[in-house]
Amino acid sequence: MYVAVKGGEKAIANAHALLAKRGRGGADAPRIDYVQMRDQMGVLVARVMAEGSLYDPDLAAKALLQAQGDVLEAVTLLRSYRTTLPRFGVTIAVDTAGLPSERRVSATFKDIPGGQQLGATFDYTHRLLAEELETPEVPTPDAPEAEPMPRVTDLLGVDGLIERDRPAEGWTDPDPGDLTREPTVFPMSRAERLQALSRGDEGFLLSLGYSTQRGFGNTHPFVGEVRVGEVEVEFDAPEIGYAVPIGRIELTECQMVNQFVGSADQAPQFTRGYGLVFGRAERKAMSMSLVDRALRREEFDERAVSPAQDEEFVIAHSDNVQAAGFVEHLKLPHYVDFQAELGLIRKLRREFQERQAAAVPSPASSNDRDSSTGYSSNSNSNSNPIEEHV
Amino acid sequence: MSAPHIVYNEGYLDEQTKRVIRRALLKGVAIPGFQVPFASREVPMPRGWGTGGVQVTAAVIGASDTLKVIDQGADDTTNAVSIRAFFEKVAGARSTTRTDEATIIQTRHRIPETPLAEKQILVYQVPIPEPLRFLEPRETETRRLHALEEYGLMYVKLYEDIARYGHIAKTYDYPVLVNGRYVMAPSPIPSFDNPKMHQSPALQLFGAGREKRIYVIPPFTDVESLGFEDFPFEPQRFDQPCEICGSVGVYLDEVIIDDRGNAMFVCSDTDHCERTATASVRDETTEVSA
């Protein structure tokens, strides 16, 4: 009876024991080692790192195992750990033009300095389910490529065909805001927005990016370039006085070239959308660059007509840790609020029935009952009393 | 490179973050009912499950504090148990279920029946801090409305409720005007609890983790539930007493007891119910023995 609503510590402990058992599977099969996870599920690990905002393949692999493969749960684990780490400072902006690219493709030019390089990609694989996975030999390249690979957008920039990625002069690289250490207040700077997008949910950004292609905020995108590779991270430690390399991280970068703008006193130029994500995450980087460009509508005086152009809508709902938590909190007890609603709906129904009963003796006047009681039945106002369950 | 060793600070949050939260709280005290943005951190429970309340509690709790955690008025609902266990683990705090013994009470959706006293802190878990959110979803707009003290939208909504239903159809998270200036969401407490906020001797702190906002009602502050002269605010009331302890004038949970829709009404505040029931049993025993 009343005890049924009591949860209690024992029930929680038992539930967690059961969860662990379900995650273990058969005792005769070995547990998956985190190293296997890290190396054989690299794309998944990269997603957890990106959305968890922490570059640590070992911890991401462990989080995935602990979460039994629930990506958002693993992301939450990583975020909760990340937030306890001290922040030493800001690294020097990584130089993606200098990164020895493992993969680099451009859809805007057939040949580009440094060449196109397919690298490790699912593109052009036939999506046929394999009986068994094979690892064919990878031939060593005839001559190691030492040719530099300038960004395609930089090549376009030479002639001013595309907007600059920084002001022409008098520009010093400002410290970016930090989404995780400062309050989010709208409107955001583009740097903050890019941070939010980079850790945003891949599925959400994919759908938003897709929506811009289907007419909800079209930006006429071309993939200027997608590249994947490892880049050196340098940190300017004040005690030392010069930049020290602190490690290498794998990144996916997408430079989207978008529709041009111009005016009476400015020649037409292509515009940019930008995506940068940890690990091998091409789909995410491309989606991010589409959404980034759509969100820059104010800079280009574009009319806001679609969800992808709406900063508050996109940024406030892109974080899957927040979204998952709030949706799932609906399973927490809401007895008190529901009781309050029950009380009101019973009262309203009682009053309705009383009015009905009073109206029965004079059926002739039943047609104009609505207006006689002052209750509008055709109002399209959305003041539904049960509108917000929180 | 070896895997990093995982260590957590006392109270989970690092000291820098605690200072950030305390600064936001102080600003909140200075401007009652104003939503102060803060850099809400992740805590090891999901967003929407009390992460704002947990951060506020973590920032104010100390070694000499006694913590009570309730969810829906009860100390033993699963999430309350989980949050209490968290603080026992990371802050080494003493905990209690007695409202009068607690120095800090973290709550979701209720204010305890036992009147609060000076030097007590009530920490609310807040899902949606913006009272105007469902009237105007954009924060850039609502911020301006608050700044201009432009609350016409809210009064129109309350008026429309009366026009459609004959009542203000807001039964929880009923908007209040704090210190005669800011309209504030009291979190989804039932409107039954609203009058307890007015001139309360306790410090009332509100933490919205997912929405990254903190706001405060300092002790002895005017808190007025919105209404009209001819349709004043009316808190919900129950006609029946609690079927366990017999209390009247308290908030009740309806517990369905069979498959024919029969129900019993019992206190939502488990601490109040237990203490009242024990006290009446004791009275009866004294009477019998005398």
TrEMBL record, chain A:
Q: Where is this region: Disordered?
A: 355-390
- Report which superkingdom the organism of origin falls in: Bacteria
List the protein's name: Alpha-D-ribose 1-methylphosphonate 5-triphosphate synthase subunit PhnI
Cross-referenced InterPro entries: PhnI (IPR008773)
Source organism of the structure = Glaciihabitans tibetensis
Q: Name one GO biological process term.
A: organic phosphonate metabolic process
UniProtKB/TrEMBL annotation, chain B:
User: What is the recorded name of this protein?
Assistant: Alpha-D-ribose 1-methylphosphonate 5-phosphate C-P lyase
Note the Pfam families from the entry.
Answer: PhnJ
Q: Give GO terms: molecular function aspect only.
A: 4 iron, 4 sulfur cluster binding; lyase activity
GO BP of this protein: organic phosphonate catabolic process
Alphabetical UniProt keywords: Lyase
